[in-house]
């Protein structure tokens, strides 16, 4: 006797496959290369300052050659996400090593993983909307196309403010 999966079970399995596929696409190797974009280093230092100071409102970037000590030009969500990840990774905490942002890969992982997760959230949202209005098959195809689009894929692996806006949107 064969048992068939209910519509709800199939929907949950496909949703899980989309999410796991996105995680497997974006998370591995995300923190194994240095913060190469100038904005990645800029934003991660602001998040490190936030973590180190314990001040989750003020966006400090002391020593900035172009800006004053505070950075008010970007929304705070990106920095909160990086700061939470830095707490989890043990980076930027008071009493930490002065070179922790340059030695090892913990800082890269802490800076990028939140944005990888936001990228996966965006892919899942594309799947949900397309599956609801067209079909589940079209939803999976739309999610795969979105996930592998070069610009989306690149930005989803960087510590940039874009994914913190796009993912929840």
Give the arrangement of secondary structure elements.
Blueprint: H1 7-26, H2 38-53, H3 77-89, H4 106-133, H5 136-148, H6 150-156, H7 161-166
End-to-end separation in angstroms reads: 45 Å
Radius of gyration: 19 Å
Mean pLDDT rating? 88
Please provide the ordered H/E string of secondary-structure elements.
Answer: HHHHHHH
Task: Tell me the overall shape.
Answer: elongated
- Kindly name the structural category: mainly alpha
Major sheet: size, sense and barrel closure? none
- List unreliable stretches of 5+ residues: none
Overall number of strands? 0
Helicity range: 55-70%
Tally of helical segments: 7
Strand content: under 5%
Walkthrough of the structure:
- This protein has helices at residues 7-26, 38-53, 77-89, 106-133, 136-148, 150-156, 161-166.
- With 169 residues, it is mainly alpha-helical.
- The model has no long low-confidence stretch (mean pLDDT 88).
How would you sum up this structure in a few lines?
This protein is mainly alpha-helical and 169 residues long. The chain has seven helices and no strands.
Task: Give keywords.
single chain, mainly alpha, 169 residues
């Amino acid at each position: 006797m064969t048992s068939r999966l209910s519509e709800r079970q199939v929907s949950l399995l496909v949703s899980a496959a989309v999410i796991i596929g996105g995680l497997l696409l974006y998370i591995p190797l995300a923190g194994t290369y240095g913060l190469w974009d100038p904005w990645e280093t800029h934003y991660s230092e602001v998040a490190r300052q936030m973590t180190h100071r314990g001040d989750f409102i003020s966006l400090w970037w002391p020593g900035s050659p172009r800006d004053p000590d505070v950075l008010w030009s970007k929304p705070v969500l990106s920095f909160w996400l990086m700061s939470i990840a830095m707490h989890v990774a043990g980076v930027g905490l008071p009493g930490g090593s002065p070179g922790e942002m340059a030695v090892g890969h913990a800082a890269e992982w802490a800076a990028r993983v939140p944005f990888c997760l936001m990228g996966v959230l965006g892919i899942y949202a594309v799947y949900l909307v397309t599956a609801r209005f067209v079909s589940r098959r079209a939803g999976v195809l739309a999610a795969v196309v979105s996930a592998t689009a070069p610009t989306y894929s690149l930005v989803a692996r960087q510590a940039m403010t874009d994914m913190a806006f796009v993912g929840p949107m």
